[in-house]
Amino acid sequence: MSSDSDDDMPLARASAPVSKAHISKADDKAMDKAMDKAGMKSDNIPVGISVRNGPVLGDEMDVDPPITNGHAKRKSRGSTSKAVNYNVGSESEEDVPLAKRQRTAKKTVDSDSDDEPLAAKKSGKLPPKATETSYGQSSDDDEPLTHLAQKKASIEKKAEKEAKAIQAKDAKKGKKPIKKADSDEDVKPKNKRKAAATPTTKKANGVKKEESDSDAPLSKKVSAKKTNGKVKAETASPVKKGKGKKEESEDVEEVYRWWDAPKKEDDSVKWDTLQHNGVVFPPEYEPLPTNVKLLYDGIPLTLSTEAEEIAGFFGAMLNSTHNVENPTFQKNFFADFTDEVKKTGGAKDEDGNKVAIKDFEKLDFKPIFNYYDGKNQEKKARSAAEKKADKAEKDKIEAPYVHCIWDGRKEQVGNFRVEPPGLFRGRGEHPKTGKVKRRVTPEQITINIGKEATVPTPPEGHKWKNISHDNKATWLAMWQENINGAYKYVMLAAKSSIKGQSDHKKFEKARELKKHIARIRKDYNKELKAELMADRQRATAVYLIDKFALRAGNEKDSENEAETVGCCSLKFEHVTLSNDPHPNTVIFDFLGKDSIRFYQEVRVDTQVFKNLKLFKKSPKKDGDDIFDRLTTTQLNKHLTSYMPGLSAKVFRTYNASYTMSNLLKELKGSKNLSIQEKVKLYNDCNREVAILCNHKRTVGAGHEAQMEKMTDRIKGLHYQQWRIKHMMIDIDPKIKKKKPASFFELHEDLDEEWIHSHQAFLIEEQRTKIEKKFQKDNEKLVAEGKKEMKAKELTERLEVVTDLEKKFKKENKTKKVEAEGKGPSIEKCEANLKKLDERINTMRLQAEDREGNKEVALGTSKINYIDPRLTVVFAKKFDVPVEKFFSKTLREKFAWAIESLEDDEGDWEF
Question: Is 329 within the bounds of a domain?
Fold first, then answer.
């Protein structure tokens, strides 16, 4: 190692292998020679596309109430479990817990590979290889990949050309380009990771919060730097709903179009007046009945109320085996539980003798679980009227907290409920999983409110920790939780003007990147061969962030936070270099944001492959940093030298939006296309964006079952058509001579066995509908104080099921179908056949869409990265209701995009 490298190396890293500070020409030539000898160089290969992919690293969709305040339930990935719905926008594909993901199989790596991929060290099988279906191609082998790589390269060239044109135009106007920072700054190797000094410096769940620093606790705030990002006036209002929808609320509120308002001179001031009613606390603990006890070695225990509540946390979740069977979860729970038992007088048996709790295995929580499970079953068994009454009561209690008055306008609060106590679960392999989340008291909560406003009254006998009047912050209440020392905030809802302005600013920043992308790409491609190791590592990192949407990554307190990784924090074992089956293949395998596994096999440029090989050069080994002379701070400082506010995440937004913009420009409107076909056209573009921008996911476990279900539904429509055609014979026997014999034949996908099965399904479906309707009608009568209907009424109603069963038996025997309905006619039958043809076509499109999207995260692209104004432009240009792309929740979230283009004729450009 060179002397200057040693001089720069901190003492903490003195014993760790660190890359040389400089790369000599001799080193470069030696590397080239080694790669040539191993047959590892190939300049004519498609790059920038995943060959094999795993879970997508998607941003959380900020649509539901923010998770700043309390534990959010993990959602299942709707796209893999629900049929495609053209009436509602796709939901966000949330990350599935790591334990539920496919494990990877041992993979034989070519001898040229530097090391074995992380996936090879685990049991199971690899994520699926990129298939023809997922890319919407029908070619063989690598042709779909080649086609997409070429298309991506074409779009990038177009972007660079456009950026140069914009720069030239700005130059004529006299705008000065931003002076670039010196490239040789901050070249020191990274420090070894250390635990954070205080809880306030840690990141919740190991994830860096992306909110403004105006939301930081008052005592910890530092002076914020001004940015040049364009932000609209910070005045809030209820957001106008999508077109064609009537206001559901009784009070019609004036809509404030913040996107049309003039910008404030000082956009750091978020509000002038603010009034709200604080937060809702969870109910107090209700002790267990005296006959329900925690058992220790078969002995019923009497515990203090505090210890009993903690035991109840564990007992109530015995059915969550993923947690309660986790050794770390058990260890942390047992430590906190026994501490509480000791603090509160210990555990006693029925005779009052103390019982020492020393062995977790001897604890039996089943009596507690059975009690809470019984309560849950009782709750589920409530009648519709009871559920409605309970909901009305709950809504009445929470009504004062749902909205705040922000600058005189009503705004919805995102999550006003204080998180209840319980057991911390965390994401991924969190070291603190199972620890007790303590009950939050008013004495821990700081209220942020206007000076002239009435401060919310705390619960009786309590007081607030502090009252703040910080009009540069957007939070309404804040406290510190006990697990990671993270601060929790009560913020406004996703549809609020503040959140809307944040989204708008994000996409405007991505639009601004258009002007600089050519210079950025030119610079990092040049610096891929830089002699200074720090510059070469930085250029390689920017390449990976631009091409493969990697996050920048942040250092973690590995003892207290889940070990998650981004580009700058990649370790030796996270990156595998291979030439099998494709040259210059890089395999990424690590835990990314929220501890979700990121697995991708990608093709890179030869120089990038060479650099990664250099960064992994011996004596580096597992646990050592690949980018040991680069930190996230240094990377972001470098990026802001091109454009204020530029960071790694802006590249993801820019690449997705710019790609979508180009794909939509290539489309030509057609009056002959149906609404469903136009929607599929949009989804095809969205899919291509997701692929080109590497927004991938593994195929859902229920995909095949869903496809089979959709196939059965299509078969059911064909069977319906067959019955209608034979009804036409019953109406007019002569029609048999007017139509070809094939017209009356059974569809090729149907057979007798399937028909009998489908008939049984239809009979059972009819029976279930009638029984549910009967039950609902009875509940309504009881709610109105009337008598219930007798069982005899249900029997009479079920006669239609018996008739249907007889009808099918007769049809199967005679092969004849009697005409149904009032005044059946040939014309009516033909009209019904046409309607069924349309439904079949729609469902086939849905099935094709679902099959094509099985490995692609459409929601990730559409919700988080594609400028919503592009979707609105498509809807206008092709005359498709925006409801086909955005659900009600998303229409509220993106109201600014929909309304700001209200008078646009589809000409807006990203």
Answer: yes
Integer angstrom CA distances of residue 35 from 28, 528, 586, 667? 11, 17, 15, 43
The DSSP output letter for 478 is E
Q: pLDDT band at residue 159, thresholds of 50, 70 and 90?
A: confident
Is residue 110 very low, low, confident or very high in pLDDT (cuts 50, 70, 90)? very low
Tokens representing 58 are 């998607």
* CA triple 58-63-69, angle to 5 deg: 95
For residue 209, how many other CB atoms are within 10 A of its CB?
Answer: 15
Q: Which long-range contacts (CB under 8 A, 24 or more apart) does 137-142 make?
A: 142/46, 142/582
Which pLDDT score is estimated for 675? 87
Answer with the one of 384, 413, 432 that is the final residue of a domain: 384
3-state secondary structure of 229: coil
Task: Please give the structure tokens belonging to residue 806.
Answer: 């007889």
Q: Does 445 have pLDDT greater than 90?
A: yes
To the nearest 10°, the Cα dihedral for 718, 720, 723, 729? Answer: -80
Query: DSSP secondary structure string, 698-744?
Result: PPPTTHHHHHHHHHHHHHHHHHHHHHHHHHHHHH-TTHHHHS-GGGG
The residue assigned the tokens 């020191």 is 188
- Domain of 366 in residue numbering reads as 294-384
H-helix or E-strand spanning residue 299: strand 299-301
Minimal CA–CA distance to 591: which of 558, 631, 637, 629?
558
Q: Report the alpha-carbon distance of residue 50 to residue 548 in Å, rounded.
A: 8
Hey, which residues are catalytic here? 865
Place of tokens 């080109």: 692
The residue from 828, 853, 878 where one domain ends is 853
How confident is the prediction for the chain on average, in pLDDT?
77
Q: Which DSSP symbol is given to 598?
A: E
Average pLDDT over residues 633-647: 91
Instruction: Dump pLDDT digits (tens) for 734-768.
Output: 988 888 888 988 898 888 899 999 999 999 999 99
List the 50-53 sheet strands across, edge first: 50-53, 597-603, 585-591, 575-578
Enter the tokens of residue 610. Answer: 């060479």
CA distances from 853 to 586, 595, 688, 766 (A): 24, 24, 10, 33
- Position 257 scores a pLDDT of 82
DSSP label at 251?
S
Chain centroid to CA 463 = 38
The domain tally of the chain equals: 2
Q: Tell me the pLDDT tens digit for each residue of 321-350.
A: 889 999 999 999 999 999 999 999 999 999
User: SS3 letters for 827-868?
Assistant: HHHHHHHHHHHHHHHHHHHHHHHHHHCCCECHHHHHHHHCCH
pLDDT, residue 620, reads 87
Cα–Cα distances in Å, from 342 out to 307, 330, 356, 439, 480?
9, 18, 9, 19, 25
pTM reported for the whole predicted model: 0.66
Dihedrals phi, psi of 606, to nearest 5 degrees = -55, -45
Under 8 Å between Cβ of 659 and 693? yes
CB 819 within 8 A of CB 726: no
Q: Is residue 331 part of a domain?
A: yes
- CA dist 670 and 709 (Å) reads 32
| 909 occurs within a structural domain | no
Specify the pLDDT at position 151: 63
Domain membership flag for residue 357: yes
Q: How far is the C-alpha of 884 from the C-alpha of 868, rounded, in Å?
A: 13
Q: Per-residue confidence at 287, pLDDT binned at 50, 70, 90? A: very high
Tally Cβ neighbours within 10 Å of residue 772.
Answer: 10
CB neighbour list of residue 197: distance below 8 Å, 6 or more residues apart: none
* Rounded CA separation 595/749 (Å): 45
Q: Tell me, what CATH number does 368's domain have?
A: 1.10.10.41
Q: What is the spatial distance between Cα 357 and Cα 364, in angstroms, rounded to a whole number?
A: 12
Q: What is the rounded distance in angstroms from the CA atom of residue 521 to the CA atom of residue 605?
A: 13
Evaluated on CA atoms 524, 527, 532, 533, the torsion sign reads positive
Tokens linked to 675? 């609404």
